[in-house]
Amino acid sequence: MNDAPRVTARPIAAGGPVAVRIEGPGATLGDLLRAWQPLCDDPGVYKQFAEPHFAPCRGCAVNCCRHAYVVPDIVSLRQLAAHLQLDLPRLARDYLLEDSLRAGIPRMRTSPCSFLVDGLCTVYPVRTLICRFYLCTPLEGFTEQLVYAITLAGMAATRRVLRGMGLIPPAAAQAGHGLSGFDLHLRRLLDACEGWAGVQSFLEAADYDDIPLAVFLRREVLELQ
Ligand code: SF4
Ligand code: SF4
Q: Rounded to whole angstroms, how far apart are CA atoms 141 and 71?
């Protein structure tokens, strides 16, 4: 049996941008996340906001969770609901920003994140894809496109589910005032990727291992951002 990883993620050179390589057929988002996680703990990976710059995330004084802009993907949202023993409407009411929901963006409460206690994430095993992927280090072009495409698809799937439950209004009724330029840009991207096969993969997945990376490798998907 071949135990070689189906995905690798490492800096191209010392201090250089991180590059993902898909090494085998059938690679899944779970494979990518397993390859990605060690980057956070690796003191050999450059991190812009860490002090010193070559350090693990643990112990970082800046701690991006304090002001993170987090829109959960549907896999993590469902796992979070199970972990907290809440149904989705209750989770949305308690942990998502009401104004953002009205505007069609299921964004978590922030500054700081509701799940940050004493500088540590209290829902670490079920944290969102944005939380898992965010790393203050440069990314190689393909890697950045891939990570953005996957994260967008997961967020769009969340929006589909919450809209189906009546927790997000249909597009024509979404609030438009008071949104930042970033909010508007993100909403446009989410609208544009609604029909992706990757969104459907998220909707059907119980876990990240159920989501094939192949659905994100099409040019129109990678180049949307
Ligand atoms: S990714 Fe976040 S926790 Fe890690 S070094 Fe950067 S700011 Fe700190
Ligand atoms: S869910 Fe956890 S990892 Fe994500 S922003 Fe909140 S505290 Fe940080």
A: 23
Asked if the structure places residue 190 within a domain, the reply is yes
Residue nearest to atom 5 of ligand 2 (CA): 65
Judge whether 150 and 72 are in contact, CB under 8 Å.
no
Ligand 2 neighbour 130 (Cβ under 6 A):
no
Q: What is the pLDDT of residues 12-40, one digit of tens each?
A: 988 889 999 998 789 999 999 999 999 99
On whether residue 24 sits in a domain, the answer given is no
| Ligand 1 pocket residue status of 60, Cβ below 6 Å | yes
User: pLDDT tens digit string along 65-101?
Assistant: 999 999 999 999 999 999 999 999 999 999 999 999 9
Ligand nearest to the CA of 41: 1
Range of the domain at 192: 63-222
CA trace torsion 97, 136, 66, 160 (10° rounding): 20
For ligand 2, say whether the CB of 115 is within 6 Å of any of its atoms.
yes
Ligand 2 pocket mutation, candidates 67, 127, 132, 136, criterion most atoms within 8 A of CB: 127
- Residue 144 C-alpha from the chain's centroid: 12
* pLDDT at residue 222 tops 80: no
127 lines ligand 2 (CB under 6 A): yes
